[in-house]
Amino acid sequence: MPTTEHTVTSGRRLAHPSVEEIRLETVLHALADPVRLTIVRELADGHADMACIAFDLPVSKSTTTHHFKVLREAGVIRQHYEGTSRMSRLRETDLEARFPGLLQAVLEAARRSAHAPAPSA
Description:
Layout: H1 24-32, H2 34-45, E1 50-51, H3 61-74, E2 77-82, E3 85-90, H4 92-98, H5 102-115
Antiparallel strand pairs: 1-3, 2-3
Helix pairs in contact: 1-3
């Protein structure tokens, strides 16, 4: 069960695993989904904190919420509330400490894949 670490602005708290609790299998599972990988890429290329509504994802709001929860519980992102907005931040430092080079390798592969020509049939 994840340890609860908090960043509290409005009194609402979200559970996050500590660095020691982040597991490789869970991180890889979270990053294997194309929608979640898009979220991670946008966080890596965007601002330090981004509101969940800032992402243009091809899924419903409830499915988007699920994807952010999977990433948070895996230890890939950290979330906190600012007013009514749930803000997300990539846990780059924590992931680098736990699995050196993993996040950068995944991001680089995802960027290359996004720019690769579609396979011909």
